[in-house]
Write a structure and sequence with these properties.
This protein has about 140 residues and is of the alpha+beta class. It has one helix and six strands. The N and C termini lie far apart (about 75 Å).
Length: about 140
Amino acid sequence: MRTKLRLFSILLLIFCSGLGLGLGVAASDTYQVFINGNPSKIQVEQDKETLLVPITLPAAAENEEFTVGLHRDDKAHKVEVKISSPKVKLRGAVDCYYCSGNGMCANDYPPGSGRNYSNITDGSCNGTGRCYHCTGTGKL
């Protein structure tokens, strides 16, 4: 009985140490995502040599155009995403009515955190915490 218990504890120790090492390796390979220069809480998925970055784009009007650029830096473990959209020139600087002019994403909880009520990365602002209508400037 003692030998079985001793064998079980040794196997459990080996399994736990191997699992801890595996998690440590996986955690060191994560990539940080920056959207328009702002850090995001988006989790990057990896499929062999390809990184998959889930990005949300708002479709507010009938015809929307976006330019999306990706730059992957393997040494720094980061992915930079540039999203731009041609803006219609307004007559003056108008406060953004989506975020009340504060530049924080109104869909986040708390506002500007990049997370929703369930503590999951908010897809509307891509986890940056910045208003996606005014890109965090507070002005349209």
